[in-house]
Write a structure and sequence with these properties.
alpha/beta; TIM Barrel; Oligo-1,6-glucosidase, domain 2; 4 domains; 8-stranded parallel β-sheet; 5-stranded antiparallel β-sheet; 15% strand; binds 1-deoxynojirimycin
Length: 577
Amino acid sequence: MKNNILTMAFILLATNLVNSQKAELPDALQKKWWKEAVVYQIYPRSFKDSNGDGVGDLKGIISKLDYVKSLGVDAVWLNPIYASPNDDNGYDISNYREIMKDFGTMEDFDVMLKEMHKRGIKLIMDLVVNHSSDENKWFQESRKSRDNKYRDYYHWWPAEKGKPPYRWSFFDVNSNAWKFDAQTNSYYLHYFSEKQPDLNWENPKLRQEVYAIMKFWLDKGIDGFRMDAFQFISKDNTFPDLPKEIVNTPAAIIKYYLNGPHLHDYIQEMNKEVLSKYPNAMTVAEGAGDSPEAAMKFVDPDRKELNIAYHFESVDVGKHLKDFGLVKYKSIFSKYDDKFEDKGWLSIFLANHDQPRMVSKFGNDTPQFRELSSKMLSTFVLTMRGTPFYYNGDELGMDNIRFDSIEDYQDVDTRNKYIGIKNKGGDLNAFLAIQKQSSRENSRTPFQWNTEKNAGFTTAKPWLKVNPNYKTINAEAQEKDPNSVLNYFRKLVKLRKQEPALVYGKYTLLDKENPNVFAYTRELNGKKILVLLNFSEKNAPYNIKIPIAKSKIILGNYKIKKINILQPYEAQIIELK
Ligand code: NOJ
């Protein structure tokens, strides 16, 4: 009896101790699956076509899940697969509870989810609710009459009040976010294309519709959401005239869009009504304001909003690393990490379906350096603090296709801007030259599986041209080569999974002013890892003393190392003992 009481007392004491230690851990060290995960982004249209119509689909993804599993990743973020007329490749949704015909059926979806979960892969879906498609039932109703019950699901401006105050649009031919609709003699708002009318979040009924959609998918068993254009959802419905300096530049107007009056109230409401009921779901908003402080607001745990901040400063910095330089680039990551050292959580990414290929922007895609610099960039993404979001095809070192002709582009962004410039008699050649480097189409070309026709992506004509370099850059060839970009990526993922210091460890930037080398340490519980990355095509010295006897290289992209110097695009991960 006495022994029992003693044992009980001991257990209580021990439990309290563990709990109090837990309570003392800063938020950034609290364990969460989504902090430890490597997220692999699949662009479904371009991943694998199973039925020979030239468009990737869900059955195609299912057929490649063993490949996805073999990468070692934990979760897949899938771009939108909902019913859509595809004005913006699925970012214009006509029915939030149906699957796009091109991609398959709800049965296919259920099988895909089950097969992912069977392999221990989680599924993150895209939630696109800043706008819908103009073919969505809500909008079809809304535009019928001014007293339709869906009228206030969108933003309307009655024409008798005159022209609405100017708002800039990302994809409109004339960059004008207001479109006149004769049926009710009113203008509607579209920050993106005219087929993507903005939803009115100031209407509580609309918000309830969104929450119901979220529950529908979460109840199906998905593991979270990436929230499209989320920083734009809240608007000042009076649409005041904007100061001249804002109206005149797109960059300034985007800044204005970020500051919607009730943005964070709505996210908190969503958290209360939906997310708090699914505590394991991962949530990441696309865009996170224009500063580390603004980004923190989305993910500060005390505010009860979202999990991961996905900010754009590190990709919006310029067209190519050569233009903005490594010192500036390093300072952006360091500035954000500094703010997030103790709480909140960031994502780390260099590419996605809206960006050119990672190697073409931050690396060097000439034959001499493409593989080396791809490996170096992957090393960066997999060793930084923050959840890696890794874009499909980058693990092969796929690069920009650089279309010559406007006919090759399918993207509403490029096509509409082209028409806009043409209408104004602008310089179309200059525009096309820029698109070669920065168009989103560069990262949307079909996945390069093998050397068969169309890179093994489809047996039909692919919806977007396949990069002709698939004969040399493809997954099948790289499977066989132990030194391939693909197999190097796998080693990196494995290392991150084995080494908590790479997930939770403190980040410290070294040799800050070095124009070619990005060097940092990651430290946790006495373990210290040094990462050295040469972002240039030259040998690059660095100013860091490494105790050679007390260090061990864990992974790198060169077989032979040199002392105190990094070779072109060299990456080294070193354990310091
Ligand atoms: C961001 C998405 O990533 C992009 O592809 C899309 O065009 C816009 N939001 C509009 O939904």
